[in-house]
């Protein structure tokens, strides 16, 4: 999720709990062997044993279309000790697809095979190589063929975003097609797409047959979602809408921490926008986020945001996660 779920938000969200592994935003590979500092800039967790500060492993993701160049960069990245390498075959952005990357590769299963095979051979045998794909580009006619090409080349796992590039991010997600893909391959398949609530997660598991789920925007909008899904599936007789609620008061310190990390790590011109971007998604779950978004909508001066957060902290009662 380029421009949204970067290392700053990974740090904050994994503090809440419930997450087994993170995948980084994609690192674009063209015709250049990137220096180590570029990988570290995108995934600074590489300097922390490959984990967020709360101990959650991070798997860097590469995006490109040239097998040889991707293999060379994967080998360099592998030397930095990540918890595996992921390959992006799902990005729907026009600028990426125009250059043959992301979801555009879903029209060329043989190229998917070549890329995964080259990367698999380039990194140590013990290091996981996984991939994320959509159901297809304009349609899903070759979804199983693409998944088989990825699996046969040596990938250890496939995450399937249950929409085509043409679908974009419009509901619904076609979870039943993930079940078809599971039947076509012999490696683990992870379901992704339109999981906003515990009820969504349980329904997705039922329809797709997948135990493992990848959360994207749903986790950004509701930082307690992964923890709530764990609670619902671990508790016998839990209601489908069971929710481990992270209160707004409990979330405020995390928002403040996020803001401080943004202030430290991003350019000044990006700072206010990043906070408002998160608040915009939080509005789906928290009415208070709507008021916060409106209060800060026209604010770009970091010092004014500092003052606003300080005021919220003074007003907040004791924080709890229930």
Structure description:
This protein is an alpha/beta fold and 322 residues long. The protein has two domains: 7-234, Aldolase class I (TIM Barrel, Alpha-Beta Barrel); 248-315, Up-down Bundle (Bacteriocin As-48, Chain A), CATH 1.20.225. The chain has helices spanning 7-16, 36-42, 67-78, 94-98, 109-122, 143-152, 175-184, 198-208, 217-221, 225-234, 248-265, 268-282, 287-296, 302-315; strands spanning 22-28, 58-63, 85-89, 129-134, 157-161, 189-192, 213-214. Strands 1-2-3-4-5-6-7 form a seven-stranded parallel beta sheet, covered by helices on one side. α6 crosses α7 (175-184), α11 runs antiparallel to α14 (302-315) and α12 (268-282) runs antiparallel to α13. It is globular, with a radius of gyration of 20 Å. Mean pLDDT is 92; it is low at 318-322.
CATH superfamily of the largest domain: Aldolase class I
| Portion of residues within helices | 40-55%
**Unreliable segments (pLDDT under 50, ≥5 consecutive)?**
318-322
What can be said about the biggest beta sheet?
A: 7 strands, parallel
State the secondary-structure class: alpha/beta
Q: Under the CATH scheme, which class of the largest domain? A: Alpha Beta
Total E-strand runs: 7
Report the total helices. Answer: 14
Strand sequence of the main sheet, in spatial order? Answer: 1-2-3-4-5-6-7
- Sum up the overall morphology in one term: globular
Q: Distance N terminus to C terminus?
A: 29 Å
- The fold-level CATH name of the largest domain is TIM Barrel
- Number of domains in the coordinates? 2
Q: Tell me the radius of gyration.
A: 20 Å
Task: Determine the strand fraction and express it as a percent band.
Answer: 5-15%
Question: Kindly state the mean pLDDT as a whole number?
Answer: 92
Helix-strand sequence: HEHEHEHHEHEHEHEHHHHHH
Specify the CATH architecture of the largest domain: Alpha-Beta Barrel
């Amino acid at each position: 999720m380029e421009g949204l779920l970067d290392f700053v938000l990974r740090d904050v969200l994994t503090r809440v709990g419930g997450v087994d592994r993170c995948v980084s935003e994609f690192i674009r590979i063209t015709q250049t062997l990137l220096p180590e500092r570029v990988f570290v800039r995108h995934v600074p967790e590489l300097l922390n044993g490959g984990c967020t500060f709360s101990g959650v492993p991070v798997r860097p993701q590469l995006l490109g279309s040239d097998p040889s160049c991707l293999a060379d960069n994967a080998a360099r990245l592998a030397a930095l000790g990540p918890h595996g390498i992921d390959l992006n075959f799902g990005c729907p952005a026009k600028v990426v697809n125009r250059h043959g990357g992301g979801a555009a590769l879903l029209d060329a299963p043989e190229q998917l095979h070549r890329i995964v095979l080259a990367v698999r051979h380039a990194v140590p045998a013990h290091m996981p190589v996984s991939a994320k794909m959509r159901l297809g580009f304009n349609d899903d006619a070759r979804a199983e063929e693409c998944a088989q090409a990825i699996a046969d080349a040596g990938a250890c796992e496939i995450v399937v975003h249950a929409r085509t590039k043409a679908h974009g991010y419009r509901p619904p997600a076609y979870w039943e097609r993930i079940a078809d893909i599971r039947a076509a391959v012999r490696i683990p398949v992870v379901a992704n797409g339109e999981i906003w609530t515990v009820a969504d997660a349980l329904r997705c598991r039922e329809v797709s047959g997948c135990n493992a789920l990848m959360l994207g925007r749903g986790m950004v909008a509701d930082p307690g979602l992964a923890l709530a899904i764990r609670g619902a599936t671990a508790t016998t007789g839990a209601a489908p809408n069971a929710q481990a609620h992270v209160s707004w008061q409990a979330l405020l310190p995390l928002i403040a921490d996020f803001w401080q990390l943004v202030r430290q790590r991003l350019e000044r011109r990006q700072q206010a926008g990043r906070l408002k971007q998160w608040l915009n998604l939080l509005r789906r779950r928290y009415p208070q986020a709507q008021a916060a978004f409106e209060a800060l909508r026209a604010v770009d001066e970091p010092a004014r945001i500092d003052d606003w957060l300080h005021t919220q902290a003074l007003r907040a009662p004791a924080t709890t996660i229930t």
